[in-house]
């Protein structure tokens, strides 16, 4: 059997074929929530505090598999409520491919991107 780049690429493409149903995008549904510190989220005198979503709730999202922390300063204020709604394959949430914290990062990155670039560029003739 001859070893060629084309044969290798064809073999790899057939091995990683993804069903079309996995590529259907759906809007990530999340709910903005009002954040208020509770006794459970009380700030201590430590440099780092446990991390949890503060301004949104993502139904069906799995918790992050490892412990996350944030600086005490960041834990003392709530992030702004986003309005950006990413469109991702449904499996990303239902199968736990991305955790709630990772999905929150995607939402805030999209929020920042949409605000920064909106109307900044125009296409000329």
Output the helix-strand order.
Answer: HEEEEEHEHH
Q: How many angstroms separate the termini?
A: 52 Å
Strand order of the largest sheet: 1-6
Q: Can you count the beta strands?
A: 6
Q: Which percent range fits the helix content?
A: 25-40%
Helix- and strand-based class? Answer: alpha+beta
Structure description:
This protein has helices spanning 5-15, 72-75, 91-94, 100-117, and strands at residues 25-27, 31-32, 48-50, 56-57, 69-71, 87-89. The chain has 125 residues and is an alpha+beta fold. The strands form three sheets. It has a two-stranded antiparallel ribbon. The protein has a two-stranded antiparallel ribbon with strand order 2-4. A two-stranded antiparallel ribbon has the order 3-5. The termini are far apart. 10% of the residues are buried.
SSE topology:
Blueprint: H1 5-15, E1 25-27, E2 31-32, E3 48-50, E4 56-57, E5 69-71, H2 72-75, E6 87-89, H3 91-94, H4 100-117
Antiparallel strand pairs: 1-6, 2-4, 3-5
Summarize the structure.
With 125 residues, the protein is of the alpha+beta class. It has helices at residues 5-15, 72-75, 91-94, 100-117, and strands spanning 25-27, 31-32, 48-50, 56-57, 69-71, 87-89.
Task: Give keywords.
alpha+beta, 6 strands, 125 residues, 13% strand
């Amino acid at each position: 059997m001859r070893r060629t780049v084309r044969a290798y690429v064809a073999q790899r493409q057939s091995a990683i074929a993804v069903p079309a149903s996995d590529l259907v995008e759906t809007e990530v549904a999340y709910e903005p929530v009002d954040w208020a510190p509770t006794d459970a989220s009380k700030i201590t005198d430590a440099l780092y505090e446990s991390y949890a979503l503060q301004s949104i709730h993502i139904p069906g999202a799995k918790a992050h598999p490892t412990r996350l922390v944030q600086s005490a300063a960041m834990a003392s204020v709530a992030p702004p409520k986003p309005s950006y709604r990413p469109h991702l394959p449904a499996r990303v949430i239902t199968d736990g491919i991305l955790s709630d914290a990772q999905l929150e990062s995607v939402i805030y990155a999209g929020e920042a991107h949409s605000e920064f670039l909106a109307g900044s560029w125009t296409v000329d003739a």
